[in-house]
Specification:
The structure holds 2 protein chains of 2 kinds.
Chain A: H1 4-10, H2 22-44, H3 72-77, H4 79-82, E1 100-105, E2 108-113, E3 117-119, E4 128-135, E5 143-148, E6 152-157, E7 169-177, E8 190-194, E9 197-202, E10 217-226, E11 229-237, H5 242-254, E12 257-258
Antiparallel strand pairs in A: 1-2, 2-12, 3-4, 4-7, 5-6, 7-11, 8-9, 9-10, 10-11
Chain B: H1 6-25, H2 30-46, H3 56-72, H4 95-106, H5 109-119, H6 125-132, H7 136-154
Helix pairs in contact in B: 1-2, 1-3, 2-3, 3-6, 5-7, 6-7
Classes of the chains: A alpha+beta, B mainly alpha.
Chain lengths: ~260, ~170
């Protein structure tokens, strides 16, 4: 076993340092810095602005087209920009007659069943920020402590994925940083419009995030809210009255409002 | 955190662009490599005032997160390993390399990521732990097991150790 890592090193598909072109590097640095400054300015101005995220050639290319970074206000004021050919999201099924309440935070609000409880979210990570966790099942502990080699205690936290083996729902609303010309291309599902924004909803796949919960069904919604951010909703549904839980998730999705 | 201005960002980019690019090239198809690199550095720029220690490990963690996220998003789940050299792509490579590639693709994604972080990114277990966001002690255990699993795939029927008589 001692030479396993050596054998692995020998199979490195990129063994040599990548050729470096400083002109290309400087162009990419400029694109990232300037575009971000421009996007911030656009976000503050409620008028339509398009920004060219342009490309550099060779090994390091940044290609982001203006449509992906149009300010939020612009998207709300001009529905045609958000999803010219996508139908509005339509919830299906009937929901159990229980009271509903409203979540509001991080510029997002939606209704959810009082049979579910919400859990506070932690600090944002590098590429995503949890917005809300909801579940009909008890939340497990999310953080474990350990000792990072020589640097003192460390804390590792994970989404509070409950075990849904006995039925129920776990919902994770998260903001993801996705900077590309067509951010929704990264997501599967049917194109729809949610809260006035272009979105996709996939009820056919069981997201990996649902696997620890022993869910039998899943719903993944991705809403492109502009500024390089995609608001995602992952719902994991355990065995039991799956249709009723799917209907409850649909109602929650249909109620979402985004104010950023 | 000091003045994290454009000059600082340019230095960060120049110092670590190659590391992030190689990380991406090893793990995603060629046409997605530039997206990964661009998103990692754009995120670094945007969060430069929020992150205390913004260094190579943070950038690799961001790249890891981005690639994992792409995998979770469903449609691209199968593409994450597409950058691994397949036997067809590296048919000119020595048999030993083909064996390792074949074995690597049979490991779980977690095992594969940990082993390649150590072997290809040349991270220590403690550094890999930072990238993966798990305790170093956990990584050491996982690494040991992953190495065993890879070794078992590479040599499924290891030769029995012959102990000369009188030496035990």
């Amino acid at each position: 076993m001692t030479d396993v890592l050596e054998r692995l090193r020998a199979a490195d598909p990129v063994p040599a340092p990548v050729a470096y072109d400083d002109t290309v590097a400087q162009r990419n640095i400029d694109v990232i810095v300037r575009t971000d400054l421009t996007v911030r300015a656009a976000g503050a101005a409620p008028r339509r602005r398009h920004h060219a995220w342009w490309a550099a050639a060779a090994a390091a290319v940044v290609v982001v087209v203006g449509g992906a970074v149009v300010g939020t206000e612009v998207l709300r004021d001009a529905p045609g920009v958000t999803g010219p050919s996508s139908p509005p999201f339509t919830p299906s099924g009937s929901v159990a007659a229980v009271p509903w309440t409203t979540f509001s935070g991080r510029g997002v609000s939606f209704e959810y069943s009082t049979e579910w409880t919400s859990r506070p979210t932690g600090a944002p990570s590098t590429m995503s920020s949890a917005v809300a966790y909801l579940s009909s099942a008890p939340f497990p502990p999310v953080c474990t402590t350990g000792t990072a080699g020589g640097s003192g205690p460390s804390v590792s936290c994970h989404p509070p994925e409950p075990f849904l083996g006995d039925g129920g729902v776990f919902v994770d609303w998260t903001d993801d940083v996705v900077l590309s010309p067509q951010p929704l291309d990264r997501y599967s599902g049917t194109p729809v419009v949610l809260a006035g924004f272009e979105a996709k909803v996939d009820k056919t796949a069981l997201p990996d995030e649902c696997r620890p919960t022993a869910a039998v069904r899943g719903v993944l919604a991705a809403i492109s809210t502009g500024k390089g951010t995609v608001l995602t909703m992952t719902a994991c549904i355990g065995p039991g009255d799956v249709d009723a839980d799917l209907a409850a998730v649909d109602r929650m999705l249909a109620s979402v409002r985004i104010d950023r | 955190m000091g003045d994290r201005d454009e000059t600082w960002f340019a230095a960060l980019y120049r110092a670590h662009h190659g590391d992030v690019l190689r990380y991406a090239r090893r793990r995603v198809p060629g046409h997605e490599v530039d997206d990964v690199v661009a998103e990692v550095f754009t995120t670094a720029w945007r969060r430069r005032h929020e992150v205390d220690r913004l260094d190579r490990l943070w950038l690799l963690a961001a790249a890891h997160h981005h690639v994992q996220h792409a995998a979770r998003s469903g449609a691209r789940r199968e593409r994450v390993t597409a950058a691994l050299p397949s036997p067809g792509v590296v048919r000119e490579a020595p048999d030993a390399v083909l064996d390792v590639v074949a074995a690597l693709t049979r490991l779980s994604p977690d095992d594969r990521e940990l082993l390649t972080l150590v072997a290809w990114e040349e991270l220590t277990p403690a550094e890999a732990a930072q990238v993966l966001g798990v305790p170093a002690a956990t990584v050491r255990v996982r690494l040991l097991r992953a190495r065993r699993r890879l070794a078992a795939l590479l040599d499924p029927e290891p030769q029995a150790t012959v102990v000369p008589e009188g030496t035990s």
